[in-house]
Amino acid sequence: MATIGHNNLNAKLVLLGDMGAGKSSLVLRFVKGQFLEFQESTIGAAFFSQTLAVNDATVKFEIWDTAGQERYHSLAPMYYRGAAAAIIVYDITTPDSFTRAKKWVQELQKQGNPNMVMALAGNKADLEDKRQVTADEARVYAEENGLFFMETSAKTAANVNDIFYEIAKRLPRAQPAQNPAGMVLVDRPAEGSRAAASCCS
Amino acid sequence: MYGAKGKIDLAFEYQSQVAVLRPSIHSRRANLTVKFQDLYGFTVEGNVDDVNVMNEVREKVRQQGRVWWALEASKGANWYLHTVIGQGNALKSSLKFSALANALTLKKIIRKGIPPVLRPKVWFSLSGAAKKKSTVPDSYYDDLTKAVEGKVTPATRQIDHDLPRTFPGHPWLDTPEGHAALRRVLVVYSFRDSDVGYCQGLNYVAALLLLVMKTEEEAFWMLAVLLENVLVSDCYTNNLSGCHVEQRVFKDLLSKKCPRIASHLESLEFDVSLVTTEWFLCLFSKSLPSETTLRVWDVIFYEGAQVMFNVALAIFKMKEDELLLTHHVGEVINILQRTTHHLFDPDDLLTVAFDKIGSMTTNTISKQRKKQEPEVMKELDERIRRLESFKMEDK
Ligand SMILES: Nc1nc2c(ncn2[C@@H]2O[C@H](COP(=O)(O)OP(=O)(O)OP(=O)(O)O)[C@@H](O)[C@H]2O)c(=O)[nH]1
Ligand SMILES: [Mg+2]
User: How many CB atoms lie within 10 A of CB B150?
Assistant: First the structure.
């Protein structure tokens, strides 16, 4: 597929969420197509990059996969500062991780970049028999807060590429002046009315 | 019983088991990536050059062993155990000349590396762990192990979660026996200091201590002396304030010692803490190859935590030319990661750390820390207050 050279976008993306929710696993699946039954716990944060082609643009994600333990919270601003997008991850088998996810959303809403594209990922969707957070509950929350929501599984790869792709589509594009005439631009989601897509159902 | 006294005779088994690696002519031609086990049983990936370097390092470790034995022969067995260096080399003038000479010799040969067989003994004594242990009854560790058995706390839950995620795939650490030993060390420590409890990062540090010390109990005391005496306080507590302090001190040092790198990275809006936080919290164990990490620890346990600044600065310094050519944050990180992962020869790093960076006394570093502390506290307090105010608004 041909990529148009002058329509490249760099986007800083940060993953936030409770320890063990599967942030690193989602990134590993997206970047390398792999899954490890036991993924090393992240300290501080780990960096990855991956490029996606979306319509006729390419988006290069610079991904910060952060550490989930509560006390690492004080390091987080360094990683989400200036981020264009965030994926807030929780584990559908642990309600606490959902509570933690909501706290992250709140913090980003107040402190993050106001145009940030936010996604909520209910991870470990393959563990249906251990589910403790319903998709409906999360979807309602996401809609109320202007995030888009997907249930993902780093293990089976379900929705993993999709969530990054969806983010890429929603990123505010560069200033129109820099774009060639006739370029199809993805609508920049308006503040406060970011339609929540329920892509997982 | 609790395995506390049981020897973990593994690290050295590897050394004898792992045959000297000879890159085949085919891999040489194709410049293939090969996987091999290092001195402490970790699987590493590298190219043919890396394999050669590893073989040289094995040979250097043997040579260094001979240096230590020769000194032992001339100065008497265990001479180094009685040689205490004052903080910041401030040796008392009353010290006898021979003691002074010994201290200097020791400092020099420790920077050249402690042979793996001597590491447990030398670390245990010179770090102050032996002294710490001697202040409590002999059965302290065993008693505490028994007392906390079966107890469930937030810390123990997090420890359990992290056991299989600590150096997965390691031939001993990633076995039921390895998990059980690491669990006991971390759990017992979490009860010893409930302010620290369990902080992610300590799992890697304790795991490596187990591999070196070979008994759980000694690994435990090494962890205790590290957190309570060697490192700045509050590196791992609550909001990691000690770690924030170290990061600020490091940034100041980078501007002083490597001004060109510092200003270039600033122009890229690259905050070095993005990368160095992990180095400091894991004492490099997640970034550097095992023998290189342990060579850094050799010096930390004798000279103090400020050594981490030398080492971190050296990593930047070694790649100065490359770093100055970067245009993007991602490139900077790739250079640093590639560099740390391939530092198989500890001397490459430590020569720069001590000869090119120049000395930084414990004194200057403590002054720096004192200066940063109030600012860190202020910043963390403000953050907490801001977060609290969100909660109020939402009610
Ligand atoms: N079944 C299942 N397990 C998963 C999935 N994603 C992650 N895991 C497992 O959950 C554990 C934690 O995953 P990580 O990706 O390390 O979690 P993290 O959020 O990065 O954790 P921290 O680095 O500690 O903050 C690992 O053992 C993974 O194998 C998933 O989609 N399904
Ligand atoms: Mg992680």
Answer: 7
Written as six digits, the tokens of B384 are 């907490």
Helices (H), chain B: 11-17, 25-30, 48-75, 97-112, 119-126, 129-134, 140-148, 154-162, 176-192, 202-213, 216-225, 241-257, 259-267, 273-281, 290-303, 307-318, 320-324, 329-341, 346-351, 362-394
Distance CA B203, CA B185 (A): 9
CA–CA gap between residue A68 and residue A100 (Å, rounded): 10
What percent of chain B shows pLDDT beyond 70?
A: 87
**Do A153 and A125 contact (CB within 8 A), yes or no?**
yes
Least confident window among B181-190, B229-238, B246-255, B286-295:
B229-238
How do strand A117-123 and strand A148-151 relate by DSSP bridges?
parallel
Q: Which of A70-74, B219-223, B278-282, B347-351 has the lowest mean pLDDT?
A: A70-74
For the cut 50, the answer to whether the pLDDT of residue B54 exceeds it is yes
Chain B, window 204-223: residues with a beta carbon less than 8 angstroms from a chain A beta carbon: 204
Whole-angstrom Cα distance, residue A12 to residue B178? 38
- Name the closest-CA residue to atom 12, ligand 1: A20
DSSP B207-271: HHHHHHH-SHHHHHHHHHHIIIIISPTTSSSTT-HHHHHHHHHHHHHHHHHSHHHHHHHHHTT--
ipTM at complex level: 0.85
State chain B's mean pLDDT as an integer: 88
| pLDDT per position as a tens digit, A41-96 | 999 999 999 999 988 889 999 999 999 999 999 999 999 999 999 999 999 999 99
Burial class (CB in 10 A: 0-12, 13-18, 19+), B30: exposed
Span from the CA of B168 to the centroid of ligand 1 (angstroms): 13
Domains annotated on chain A, with CATH: 5-200 (3.40.50.300)
Q: What is the mean pLDDT of residues B363-368?
A: 90
Ligand 1: residue of B165, B174, B198, B281 to mutate (most ligand atoms within 8 A of CB) is B165
